[in-house]
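Quick one:
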Amino acid sequence: MADKKAGPTFESIMRDLKARNFSPIYILMGEESYYIDKISDYIQEHVLEPEERDFNQSVVFGADVSSAQITDMAKGYPMMADHRVVIVKEAQALRNLDALEQYAEKPLTSTILVICHKNGSIDRRKKLVAKAAATGVVFESKKKRDYELPAFIESYLKAKNATIENKAAQMIADHIGADLNRLTSELDKVLISLPETDRRVTPEIVEVQIGVSKDFNAFELRSAIIHREVYKANQIIKYFDSNPKAGSIYGFLPMLFNYFQNLMVSYYAPNRNNENALAQYLELKSGWAARDYVTGMRNYTGVKTMQIISKIREIDAKSKGLDNPNTPPGDLMKELLFFILH
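Output:
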């Protein structure tokens, strides 16, 4: 079983499921539906044999049942099978959890009850969560942060015997964002296009299959800003202004804020000129990931970095209509870029 004190991870839960170490109750909750679906789908498809499911597997929706009805289903014993599986989808629609709280205190060991609560988490102060954590598994599925997406993309493709170039991974992450269901769907599309003889995803493949320009994208804009390539940065901003779907201020503001925030932290690193030491200080996965911050410290002073962070906040507020009656997003992008590079 997963360590309840540390909190189970998606990987630890899947390891236990594949080893057929089942818990009597699973509460899967959070903002990221991808992991909730992956776990519940695996249980639905792999715990019981197809011929056992008619009498031993129930899949219901929170809007259609009460917690008392779910409890009654969970208390049933399996027929000619080792387990009974009860999966509650969209459990956030359940009105009352009292009956489930009582059941979670002493669940039937032959039943596997799966509660899928999406678009948020059950209040951890509720007795249901504490009791389920003591007798089963409580998993909170959190949204991936933007900086975690390239690693997720790389890991997803590696599991399917494919590799991806760093730039290509960042292009996809910037274009798709943190919706993992949409992201994996796009990655599957890319995988289908790869020949068996070359399972490597390049920026050129991303450009063709996903429709992101390999020359005019958020990754290249970030790179141009880091290296203070004024002409290239202005070209990309101009392209974004003419092609809003390719990139917008709402997409690249968080990216730039994250970069300059890390750059500010870099100035306080004890060994800031050593890429590996800096990567460790910033909690980056490798030395090459810190290279951009070493370059940034050469091109931007600490004072200028603080001013840029303040300017990004100002432009972010204006992009949301605060103190900005009519300046269009394209002009705000140009204003920010000018401030950063001059």
